[in-house]
Specification:
2 domains, about 20% strand, binds 2-aminohexanedioic acid, alpha/beta, seven-stranded mixed sheet, Aldehyde Dehydrogenase, Chain A, domain 2, Aldehyde Dehydrogenase, Chain A, domain 1
Length: about 525
């Protein structure tokens, strides 16, 4: 595909100019922030330039968000839901073009780019329904003529710091839920994907202006060091939801904790699939291959380890090698491509260095592991996905490399499989492929998978938005999107009401005056 033409056509249609303001708070502004380029990993071309947010821009955004919050918190939640429904409808109309911008900017296949926007639409539907279901508890009081209950109040101006690999949907997981809860949201997207964020904000802006609603969604762009730290240290922001690496997440969490703020962290994953000898092998192959290869191994939920029963190990690995040899790697805009580029050159270097590290520790590369250059690949960042025979004691397999590397292990008993499974510091997603009820039961038991997400006969990647998404251990413990994650975006207020004519005290305490 002629990326150059596609780029200019789509960007023009969408109103993304060659140079864009990267700050939005009711209007687009730029007050001296440094300029960055959005570079397509497909061929290294510059899509557009974005002027990032300066200190002054940040101050304006914060002030406007606080004003918007004060109005928004008074809007009844189902009315808040109306706005999110309309945003969802507008996203439906723009799905194709927005999906294409995602593909251009971060190198996802067309189908995955569209999936990214679909995920936002799904969250909008979910949040709209939720806007009528923000309910608290009535609790039995120990005192006569007393009622104990829970009220849920809006939290304030919250921040979402998102990563390049899901450059818009993860924002919506947080923002649409936070919005129906009555919060205003400042978004700082990854500096590797500012254009997607600008495009999404243009859609949001259209709806907010049309509905004459408070400007509750705003955008700041810039490096984590400048704008990310500013948010983390700002006592005016009661909650920061951060998606990214473990070291950066640790830094943010320490800063926010030191001012008693709240964080939702979605950090690294080092997800494994257990493939039993009792698995349906066709399902297992597809599940493992999709988990390991989708988004070129750049999902938090990517399958990075396959723990395979010794009886089927050789057959399974040989089939995997066939799949790896036949998947089409290259321009993600071409139909038929399954593996696009890595995000940048740094990612390729980390991929190559992890493979070297694994080899030094005794790992054996069975397939791939090389950079691809040459005709048709331009200045894109392409690699051949790697299959590496490994052992669980290797240091390299305990680390998350954001690239398509699948480490292969052999096991004999479920106990052994679970031990390997749980032996890494991260705890996001997990899966087992088996048709045996007992094995499934053990995987889901208290001594089974120690991850936030557990999948049976489906892979580690590709979670739906209706469940709470997040993980344990160094993944950070956060939960976003579905189920009752909304509670994290609200302030819980325990209410005690006395409707009697005396003042009985709790715990039978006597106080005679
Ligand atoms: C991420 O990689 O940060 O479950 C999120 C999945 C996607 C979301 C991944 N729905 O693979």
């Amino acid at each position: 595909m002629d990326t150059g033409n596609t780029i200019s056509k789509i960007l023009k249609e969408f109103g993304l100019e060659k140079a864009n303001f990267g700050t939005y708070s009711g209007d687009w502004h730029s007050n001296g922030g440094e300029e960055i380029a959005s570079v397509s990993p497909i061929d290294g071309s510059i899509l557009a330039k974005v002027s990032t947010s300066s200190e002054k821009d940040y101050e304006i955004v914060l002030k406007k968000s606080q004003e918007a919050f004060r109005k928004w918190r008074e809007v009844p939640p189902p009315k808040r839901g109306n706005l999110i429904r309309e945003i969802g409808n507008e996203l439906r109309k723009e799905k194709e073009r927005l999906g294409m911008i995602v593909s251009l900017e971060v190198g996802k296949t067309i189908s995955e780019g569209q999936g990214e926007i679909q995920e936002m639409i799904d969250v909008a539907d979910f949040a709209t329904g939720l806007s009528r279901q923000l309910y608290g508890l009535d609790i039995a009081s120990e005192r006569p003529d007393h009622r104990l209950s829970e009220l849920w109040q809006p939290l304030g101006v919250v921040a979402v710091i998102s990563s390049f690999n899901f450059p818009s949907s993860v924002w919506s997981w947080n923002s649409f839920i936070a919005a129906v809860c009555g919060d205003a949201v400042i978004w700082k997207p990854s500096s590797k994907a500012p254009l997607t964020a600008i495009a999404v904000m243009r859609v949001v802006e259209r709806v907010i202006k049309r509905m004459k609603m408070p400007e509750i969604f705003s955008l700041v762009t810039g490096s984590g060091k400048v704008i990310g730290d500013r948010l983390a240290n700002d006592p005016a922001i009661p909650l920061i939801s951060f998606t990214g690496s473990i070291p950066v997440g640790k830094g943010i969490s320490e800063k926010v904790a030191s001012r008693f703020g709240r964080t939702i962290l979605e950090l690294g994953g080092n997800n494994a699939a257990i493939v039993s000898d009792k698995a349906d092998l066709e399902i297992a192959l597809k599940g493992v291959a999709f988990g390991a290869l989708a988004t070129s191994g750049q999902r938090c939920t990517t399958t990075r380890r396959a723990i395979i029963h010794e009886k089927i190990y050789d057959a399974f690995v040989s089939r995997l090698k066939d799949i790896y040899s036949s998947v089409r790697i290259g321009d993600p805009l071409e139909p038929g491509t399954l593996v696009g580029p890595l995000i940048d050159d740094d990612a390729v270097k980390k991929f190559l260095s992890a493979i070297r590290g694994a080899e030094q520790e005794g790992g054996v590369v069975l397939h791939g592991g090389k950079r691809i250059r040459g005709k048709g690949y331009g200045n894109g960042h392409y690699v051949t996905p790697a299959l590496i025979e490994a052992n669980p004691n290797m240091k390299t397999v305990r680390e998350e490399t954001f690239a398509p590397i699948l480490y292969l292990f052999k096991y004999r008993t479920m106990e052994e499989a679970l031990e390997i499974h749980n032996s890494v510091p991260q705890g996001l997603s997990s899966s087992i492929f088996t048709t045996d009820l007992r094995e499934e039961g053990e995987f889901l038991s208290a001594h089974g998978s120690d991850c936030g997400l557990a999948n049976v006969n489906t892979g580690t990647a590709g979670a739906e938005i209706g469940g709470a998404f997040g993980g344990e251990k160094q993944t950070g413990g956060g939960r976003e999107s579905g189920s009752d994650s909304w509670k994290l975006y609200m302030r819980r207020q325990t209410v005690t009401r006395n409707y009697g004519r005396t003042l009985p005290l709790a715990q039978d305490v006597k106080f005679r005056i």
